[in-house]
Design a protein that fits this description.
This protein is of the alpha+beta class. It has one domain. 41% of the residues lie in helices and 21% in strands. A two-stranded parallel ribbon has the order 1-2. The longest helix is centred in the C-terminal third of the chain and has 12 residues. It comes from Advenella kashmirensis (strain DSM 17095 / LMG 22695 / WT001) (Tetrathiobacter kashmirensis). This is Putative esterase.
């Protein structure tokens, strides 16, 4: 099963910075960024879904 981490980066959400560093160091995780706030699943659910679908094709 693929593991995808979608980081919402605008603005950066500091409480998850250590998690971002950890995920980036894992060879079995796919890292992706979305230029949106940490509230993207609520405020832009279509953008989140589109990005996850795009990444799942890798």
């Amino acid at each position: 099963m693929k593991k995808i981490y979608l980081a919402c980066t605008a603005p950066p959400y500091r409480p998850v910075a250590a998690t971002h560093d950890w995920v980036k160091g894992q060879p079995d995780w796919i890292w992706a960024e979305l230029n949106s706030s940490h509230s993207a699943p609520l405020l832009a659910p279509n953008r989140v879904a589109d990005k996850l679908l795009e990444m799942s094709a890798l």
